Amino acid sequence: MNTRSSTPARRLALILMAGVLAACTGMGKAPKTVLVAGATGQTGVLIVRQLQQQGYHVRALVRDPEKARGQLGPDVDYVQGDVKDAATVNAAASGVQAVVSSLGARGKDGPDRPEMIDYHGVRNLVDAARAARVRQFVLISSRGVTDRNHVLNRMFGNVLVWKLEGENYLRASGLAYTIVRPGGLLNEPGGKGEIVLEQGDKPVGGRGLFIPREDVATLCVEALEHPEAKFRTFEVHRVDGPPVSDWKARFAALKPDPRP
Fold first, then answer.
1. CA distance linking residue 122 with residue 120, whole number of Å
2. 3-state secondary structure of 207
3. Three-class SS state of 9
4. How does DSSP classify residue 30?
5. Pick the CATH number of 29-252 from 3.40.50.620, 3.40.720.10, 3.40.50.720, 3.40.50.2300
6. How far apart are CA 21 and CA 41, in angstroms?
């Protein structure tokens, strides 16, 4: 046998074998499953898309699976339920590794008022996540929650008061968490400026601090990727400047929350 002529063939065989072994090695590794609550909302839809782009498997707790499928597509695991119903929330959280909540009340009164969604709904999610032993819970809250006299409380059924109660319940739960407090939400493309992360919920006066929903979605997904984001609460808004290129450093610069 001509050794020289067979060398390329052997090399090709080794390359093919390496590819097969790599494929087999990855076959048993299922993508991390993330439960998204509020998945059909304007921010929730963007979170689902970005999670999928990063290789996560998404489970969505929705009231109407058929309607949700029209928004989010077929590649989502739909669980029919309501965050006010602890039993359906528990079923949705079973087997997931992380939870992202973009819940928001649907008015100041009625069954979906802030008390029932931003507090009781979040509380049910936290309890279910704790029972499922999830690795991380990312909660979208709001800037201004520490100001009980905020105009939004007078207009929308103490919405910020109840959001803060939801935050406090999560912080006291023992779960690893990230709490994101955006300013005003914009329906425009993200990635067009610098995202500023602040702490302390400082009064902003008449300044309009805004951030695109797409940037909030990006931040939530990045928080799942970086342990430095755990046990931190922070406010976010966009300013002119380059997009964030080092999320690890940005999260690490934040102070961890005091332990309850």
1. 5
2. coil
3. helix
4. P
5. 3.40.50.720
6. 42
- List b or e across 134-146, with b for residues whose CB sees 16 or more CB atoms inside 10 angstroms: bbbbbbbbbbbbe
Q: Each residue's pLDDT tens digit in the chain (260 positions)?
A: 444 444 555 544 443 444 444 334 333 456 799 999 999 999 999 999 999 999 999 999 999 999 999 999 999 999 999 999 999 999 999 999 999 999 999 899 999 999 999 999 999 999 999 999 999 999 999 999 999 999 999 999 999 999 999 999 999 999 999 999 999 999 999 999 999 999 999 988 777 799 999 999 999 999 999 999 999 999 999 999 999 999 999 999 999 999 87
Count of residues for the chain? 260
| Structure tokens belonging to residue 44 | 């929730």
